[in-house]
Amino acid sequence: MNIDGQITSADVTAIYNCLLDDDNSYIATCDINGDGNITAADVTAIYNMLLGE
After folding, report:
1. Radius of gyration from C-alpha coordinates of the chain
2. 20, 21, 30, 32: which one has the fewest Cβ atoms less than 10 Å from its Cβ?
3. Residue-level pLDDT, tens digit, the chain, 53 residues
4. Is the pTM for the entire model greater than 0.70?
5. Cα→Cα distances 47→15, 23, 24, 53, Å
């Protein structure tokens, strides 16, 4: 996530960037579902937050 305190489409973009980057230093901010990995499940979690689910 971009750590601006708001959940927006920019956070979805940030998660995609985390997925494409092999640098694991992003895990603290991009591991939305808390499973220790940055995966498509984190993108889904962001979408659910945006939709209020």
Report:
1. 10
2. 20
3. 566 777 887 777 888 888 887 666 667 778 888 888 888 888 888 888 888 86
4. no
5. 11, 23, 22, 9
CA nearest 51: which of 18, 24, 12, 15?
12
Among the listed residues 16, 10, 18, 21, the one whose alpha carbon sits nearest the alpha carbon of residue 49: 10
The DSSP line for 1-53 is: ---SSS--HHHHHHHHHHHH---GGGHHHH-TTSSSS-SHHHHHHHHHHHHT-
